[in-house]
Write a structure and sequence with these properties.
By secondary structure, the protein is an alpha/beta fold. Helix content is 39%, strand content 12%.
């Protein structure tokens, strides 16, 4: 089955196109199942995010995806998801919204430590203290059993190119926990594009995936679509599968859902 469960919408302020345009592009590209997993709203108090939908947009987002699921049910399967950080203080609210909005799945995209308002962006961390904190959060998130997979697990490599002993240990710890909790790790195609543009590895990082090749966690390819035509980039999609094959990994046939 040809699938992608990592699709954003314009509600996050850094993606383009209508929800329906993503669906039509996926149908044209021959996908059997897709999932919308836009950056989740959080029940922030006194803080306005500029990289995710606001709390009062969550219901409309969910209704839009459900409407498209019904409209195109004879052409493609559509799942409703969210990409979420591990913010323990907000998890009770998130769990209630999962039930209320009938959300099918969530993926872990741990962009910030502790809080988006005051925390460090994990794509720019460079110190051992920060990367170990990233690791600890990702391990705790997987232990909750809430997340269907870990998006860009090697995000911590984006801001620092040297793969030292600290980064090797953190990679091994994340991969070991993924195996223990049966949580797939994502080979992120948007990260591939970033690396090509930068001319250096960020994420997916070869050293991280070499360790994965040795340890054999479950894996998934994620487009991380921020514009509809990302679904039509067939060569990039094929590259993701070829790279995982090179590492001796086969993407899971399907991720797990709440319902």
């Amino acid at each position: 089955m040809k699938y992608n469960y990592h699709t954003h919408t314009s509600r996050c302020f850094h993606a383009k196109g209508s929800d329906e345009e993503y669906v039509l592009a996926a149908i044209e590209a021959g996908f059997d199942e897709i999932g919308f997993a836009d950056h989740t709203a959080w029940n922030y108090k006194g803080f306005v995010s500029h990289m995710r939908m606001h709390e009062n947009e969550l219901e409309e987002y969910c209704n839009s995806v459900k409407s498209l699921r019904e409209k195109y049910k004879d052409k493609i399967s559509i799942k409703l998801g969210l990409e979420c950080e591990y913010f323990p203080q907000h998890l009770p609210w998130l769990k209630s919204e999962i039930e209320k909005q009938e959300i099918d799945y969530i993926i872990l995209g741990h962009h910030f430590r502790g809080s988006e308002q005051t925390g460090v962006y994990n794509g720019a961390i460079t110190t051992p203290e920060d990367i170990y904190a990233y690791r600890d959060d990702v391990l705790k998130a997987m232990e909750t059993g809430l997340f269907s997979y870990v998006a860009h697990p090697d995000l911590f490599m984006k801001g620092y190119n040297e793969f030292d002993d600290h980064r090797e240990k953190i990679s091994r710890d994340i991969i070991a926990k993924a195996i223990e909790t049966d949580t797939p790790l994502e080979f992120n195609l948007l990260g591939v594009k970033y690396s090509m543009a930068d001319g250096r590895p960020g994420y997916p990082h070869p050293k991280f995936w070499e360790i994965a090749s040795e340890m054999k966690p479950k894996a998934v390819v994620g487009i991380d679509a921020h514009y509809p035509d990302a679904y039509k980039e067939a060569e990039l999609f094929r590259l993701g599968y070829d790279e995982l094959k090179k590492y001796g990994l086969t993407p899971v046939e399907r991720i797990r859902f709440f319902r």
